[in-house]
Protein: Putative ABC transport system permease protein
Amino acid sequence: MFIYLRVLKESFRFAVNALRNNKLRTFLSLMGVTVGIFSIIGVLAAVDSLERQIKDSLSSLDQSTIILCHVSFGPTDVPRWKREQFPLVTYEEYQHLKRTLPGAKAISYVLNVPSQTIKYEDETLERVQVGATTHEYYDIESLQFQEGRFFNEAESISGSNVIVIGDEIKNQLFGEDGNAIGKKIKIFSRKLTVIGVLKKEGNALGDSKDEAVVLPVNLTRKIYGDNNRSTFPQVIVLPEPDVDNEEFLATLDQKLRLKRGIKTSEVSNFFANQFKGLTDFIDGIIGALKLIGWGIGGFALLVGGFGIANIMFVSVKERTNLIGIQKALGAKRRFILFQFLFESIVLSIFGGIIGMFLVWSISLGLNASGITGDFKFVLSPFNIFLGLSVTFFIGILAGIIPAIGASRLDPVEAIRTGM
Structure:
């Protein structure tokens, strides 16, 4: 054990000497590993950060949540021309499902109306996201408030002039320390009373409730009507936890088909998009992005591996005389092999550490500058471990052939060649 520790120490010293004595050659050889690790770990860190941000933003929704609407959130066999003729889900269908669908924990009707301008005294905000829901949405989304409350059933049914606002909306209209509850803001040429402010949730892909407002759906139905495609109506269904998923979906499909009078031989003219399908779709995109990162970095790592292999062949050539003397004095083949193999690994890890340091520095700079807003780049311990593992493996591959060649040198020929 001690002899291998000594070999590791000597190999580290040789690697450092190689860096010092052949700075340009070593730098150019390590650039491949550095660029490769920077590409792979940089992409993985960015994708992991994006995945964490998206899933944190979606974590309030249960995986079994179902969204009924006229479009599919994933691939479908229904032709586009046919999908464009699908009718919108209606408030009456929401009421029908609420009365007749067994096993549903909560059912909500939602409209996503076009962005609006809102005003409070001299403050004006443009292009504000507007969501209109029934009161059950509170239970489906598990909304959290920093102050106030969500609108109740009576306010929802009557379409009362009340509104719930996001954290960023509150800060811009009333200031960070201002009190929003009870204040009246103007939207749709109406004055609505603020009854709640949502907790800050951060931003994912430009979509956040921090910059949105929520109001009773029946209030917006008075303005937009019931057959307006710009409002993208949806019925959101949350099953009970112990309900069989496939059976529940079949019952839901049957209830809505009966309501719409769809014949047995006809296909459904609506889509029941399960939230789990959306997360699986996101996971697929994330996986594809990671593969792209591996593909980009893989070529650079391949070049880096050849560079380190070249440096090791040169190192063996330069130290042929020393290898011969070591073997003549009794050094075993594995001693020589590990000596050069450790040196190759150390050089490869140097390149990897530089690449990861660049990723870490850039992520710190982006987070500190605020360019990415609420999106935060995070270099996770797993990615650091992965980067070190990859460079270790590249070091072994790049150094194994030169190391085997050095270990098989005949001591007499090695000394003679070195002289």
